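Retro notes, item 3 of 5
We never archived the inputs for the zinc ion complex last cycle. Fixing that now. Sequence and ligand:
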Amino acid sequence: MIYNVAQLMKAPVGTSLEYDISEDELQLDEDIQVIGPLFGHVRLRRTNQGLLVDGWVDLTLELSCNRCLKEFEQPMHITFSEQFYPTVDVVSGLPLPPFDKEEIFPIDAHHLVDLTEAVRQNVLLALPMVTVCREDCQGLCPQCGHDLNLGPCECKPEVDTRFSILEKLLQNGSESQ
Ligand SMILES: [Zn+2]
Ligand SMILES: [Zn+2]
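Structure as it came back at the time:
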């Protein structure tokens, strides 16, 4: 996901280039495991100060379930729209003063744009706070650790009477549906 934008940086504002993205594998982050290939599309458009880079990628992450702790594959569709500013002048090759805005990515001294960091940040933003392998995952028994998706365990639930009554009410409620 590296693009040479030397020609684009010399082009008039509004000029754009588009590319299909296809990567066999991608290392995004120590904590984010990308499985298999990644596909997408990117458009790089010349702006006054640099480039507006937008597009999307489809990728599959390996996540672990917060309830049953199993690893599972989560397909994701990530869209991004980011500003890239040059670090050297494309004509003179002289270094430009550093930009002090945070949400801006650098075009490096060789006029290369690397999308990896922008994609990584957008993947992190898109990750849910709680990841579950499926909506109705039953999780593990808090007493014996048995995976309740495989069936009930022998443990007796530790509930006090108030909760038992509530549980009966809930059970009756669901049976009558
Ligand atoms: Zn689960
Ligand atoms: Zn148990």
